[in-house]
Design goal:
single chain, 233 residues, mainly alpha, Rossmann fold, three-stranded parallel β-sheet, two-stranded antiparallel ribbon, 39% helix
Length: 233
């Protein structure tokens, strides 16, 4: 159940029998021809679809993350690492204070990974606290499915192109973009990254048949649900 569709009475009642919740992490950044909110849309939806049969509360996605390398693209927003770490810790502390003990973080943006030590510090500081950090798109079964469909896939390519992330009326290139030179991205500022990657797609065709992405989504939801159902002991 989404927190946005619940009231506090219902959450208090839920906490009498369960202490799990889901916190999606996203980002606001360029995704070529797709929505600037791709990472937030996907992390919240895969979390909600996974948690729905279990009745586990899903909080709204944190819409801003760590993406300094995309600041050459208008509409992108990046937080400082210290800001993001403090924000995540405040959220986790609030969840603990109101009764949640097991938190599944569903991350939708690879750039957010540096914040993982915050979850470990939080567990050390709070008795009974557990936190899992789940990068939904590169979980083993999900990533295997990506490779089976088309191994040339990356940021802003077909693997992030779903009916809920594409924008109506926008035409997409009908081609397979070669992978960008990833090794050269590491020593460029934001302007250099934009010059290197062009439209923002890191490599791959821009859209696949819905049958392919529907299969990918089904696996991603199932694998995410497994994180919630798994042994927390």
């Amino acid at each position: 159940m989404k927190i946005s569709e619940s009231n506090w009475f219902e959450i208090e009642e839920y906490l009498k029998t369960d202490d799990r919740c889901v916190l999606p992490l996203g980002s606001t950044e360029q995704h070529a021809y797709l929505s600037l909110s791709v990472d937030s849309i996907l992390s919240e939806k895969v979390a909600a679809d996974a948690a729905a049969p279990l009745g586990v509360p899903v909080f709204p996605a944190v819409a801003y993350g760590l993406t300094p390398y995309f600041m050459g693209f208008p509409g992108s927003v990046s937080l400082k690492l210290s800001t993001y770490a403090a924000l995540l810790r405040d959220i986790l502390d609030s969840l603990y204070a109101t009764g949640f003990r097991r938190v599944l973080i569903v991350n939708g943006h690879g750039g957010n990974s540096p914040v993982q030590p915050v979850t470990m510090e939080w567990m050390e500081a709070n008795e009974g606290a557990r936190c899992r950090f789940h990068d939904w798109w590169r979980a083993p079964e999900t990533w295997n499915c990506v490779q089976e469909i088309d191994p040339v896939a990356s940021h802003a390519s077909w693997m992030e192109n779903f009916p809920w992330t594409r924008l109506p009326g926008r035409e997409l290139p009908d081609e397979q973009k070669p992978f960008v030179p990833f090794d050269k991205l590491r020593d460029r500022n934001a302007a250099g990254v934009r010059e290197l990657i062009g439209d923002g797609n890191y490599g791959g065709v821009y859209q696949k048949l819905d049958a392919d992405t529907d299969r990918l989504w089904e696996i991603a939801v199932r694998e995410t649900r497994g994180q919630l159902e798994g042994d927390w002991a």
